[in-house]
Amino acid sequence: MSPAPAPALVLTDVAVDYDRVPALEGVTGTVAPGEGVALIGPNGSGKSTLLRAVLGLVPLRQGHIEVLGRAPSDARGDVAYVPQQDALDPEFPVTVGQVVLMGRYRRLGWGRRPGRADRAIAAEALDRVDLGDRARERFGTLSGGQRQRVLIARALAQQAALVLLDEPFNGVDGTTQDLLLEVLAEQRARGVAVIMSTHDLAVARTACTVACVLNRRQVAFGPVASALAPEALRQAYGPSAFALDDTFGHPPDHGHGHGHAHPASRERGF
Amino acid sequence: MQRALIEAVLLGVLGGIIGVHVVLRRLEFMADALTHTVFPGLAVAFVLGGSLYVGALITGVLSAVLLTVVTRNRRVTSDAALAVLLTGFFSLGVIVVSRSHSYTADLTTLLFGRVLAVDVSQIVATVITGAVVMAVLWLLHKELVLRAFDPEAAAALGYRVGLLDLVLNVAITLIVVSAVRAVGSVLVIALLITPAAAAQLLVRRSVGQMMAVAAVIGALAGWLGLVVSYEGSIHHGWRLASGGTIVGVLTALFGVVLAGTLGWGARRRRAVAS
């Protein structure tokens, strides 16, 4: 009997301070390979802080993080990070293809140039997000949704075992969102763990199996159904979560009856 | 004149290439601060009769390290930190020079340069410095471009962004130190910024191509500026300072490129509208 695969991520009582002010406390949980985790919480709840802690970019005041069985700083080459695309300069002289190729850099090491194999992997990643014909265009000429697709292609090109996404569906249309969810589902089927911060509870319920609810401390971490229970949402968002529950407590109704998953989601095997 | 031409063209190429990183990273103010912080090194070396290159190099590298460290501190804004360092170092240089008997002439030389007085050893120093800087930029090209475009992703991929910043700042300092003797510490910022700013108007999809275009513009300005200054001074009695004329030509070239791109943009919009 083969041993169970090592967890993609282990969080043990993680606490982070910014300028000696607690930003996040008491985060504990385990993410298995192939698992999809939604980080849920209001603005300032610590979602981005947790992602940065997993990347080893912020020091911990307390607790322990293990990424793919190693310290976060040792695992960075195997962790892909998709930042919010609106932080990037649209005038920067770089093409779509060059941005995707950046996902291969860590494997190359210092001073080496990407080779034919790297370019083939990058091209395949760009094709997967339906932008293969835009490789030579300047990154900044694309729409917000297209840029987000390019950044996810960059993460695909990295061939990482863990993918972290910071609010990947902000400013993205429905078609792009469906495509990106499909791509992430494929990655999970290959054993890649996916962690995304999002405000969209419907996406969390349909695209993820685990939710981590934060409000500067961990409110809940576990299967989506229990972690996104109304009480947990009220603790995270406050009393107004009553209204959230009515709107988002069930997947959005696309005319297929209350409580049924979106057919496209069913096709993706969620 | 031949030595001055070689030096001016070399500096135009080097300034153009490294200037692309300055412009893309929006480090114009930091680069300007660096050009001023080499001044006390120049002043001390000048007063002591030592090598201006070595003097500027010592204070330049020291200030590059200080600037890198201070600008990463979140408690002090980058601009405030740069302003403090820039004015502090520069005032130190003025104080040192003011103690010499030929204060005014010495200050003018250090502030505005004397490219026509360049000798073979200075050209050799420029070539060696330039070769080292270009080798570093070539080796670290993809890392520096990633850091400039997406610093979060660079850090997430495990690159030490602070170290990359320090390497770039020291590289900028080395070019500044080479160029300051030719055009002086006041105008050297133009050699860094103007060719790259002009190239940015022409090249939209490749940092490498932007560097090539900036190098051509810098070299052209170096050659043309020196020729105009020499011809004007010798044959027409205009007494044009060579450093100032080079920078003037650079600015004119930028103006031509800007006018050209604006005009082309307007014609394109009219074509689309019709």
Provide the CATH superfamily of chain B. ABC transporter involved in vitamin B12 uptake, BtuC
Low-confidence stretches of chain A: 246-270
Instruction: Provide the low-confidence segments of chain B as ranges.
Output: none
- Based on secondary structure, the structural category of chain A is alpha/beta
Whole-number total of structural domains of chain B: 1
Name of the top-level CATH class of chain A: Alpha Beta
Secondary-structure-based class of chain B equals mainly alpha
Question: Could you describe the largest sheet of chain B, including whether it forms a barrel?
Answer: none
| Overall tally of structural domains of chain A | 1
What is the global morphology of chain A?
Answer: globular
Distance between the termini of chain B: 53 Å
Number of DSSP E strands of chain B: 0
Cα-to-Cα separation, first versus last residue of chain A: 28 Å
H and E string of chain B:
HHHHHHHHHHHH
What can you see in these coordinates?
The complex is a heterodimer of chains A (270) and B (274). Chain A has 270 residues and is an alpha/beta fold. Chain A has one domain: 3-Layer(aba) Sandwich (Rossmann fold), CATH 3.40.50.300. Chain A has helices spanning 47-54, 72-75, 96-101, 105-108, 116-128, 144-158, 174-189, 201-207, 224-227, 230-237, 241-248, 263-267, and strands spanning 9-18, 21-31, 36-40, 62-67, 79-82, 162-166, 193-197, 210-214, 218-223. In chain A, the strands form two sheets. In chain A, strands 5-6-7-3-8-9 form a six-stranded mixed beta sheet, sandwiched between helices. In chain A, helix 5 packs across helix 6 (144-158) and helix 10 packs across helix 11. Chain A is globular. The two termini of chain A are 28 Å apart. Chain B is mostly helical. Chain B has one domain (2-263): ABC transporter involved in vitamin B12 uptake, BtuC (Orthogonal Bundle), CATH 1.10.3470.10. The N and C termini of chain B lie far apart (53 Å). In chain B, 49% of the residues are buried. The A-B interface holds A 19, 55, 57, 73, 76-77, 79, 81, 83, 87-89, 92-95, 98-99, 102, 105-106, 108, 110-111, 113-114, 136-138, 154, 164 and B 24, 74, 139-140, 142-143, 145-146, 148-150, 152-153, 155-158, 200, 203-207, 209-210.
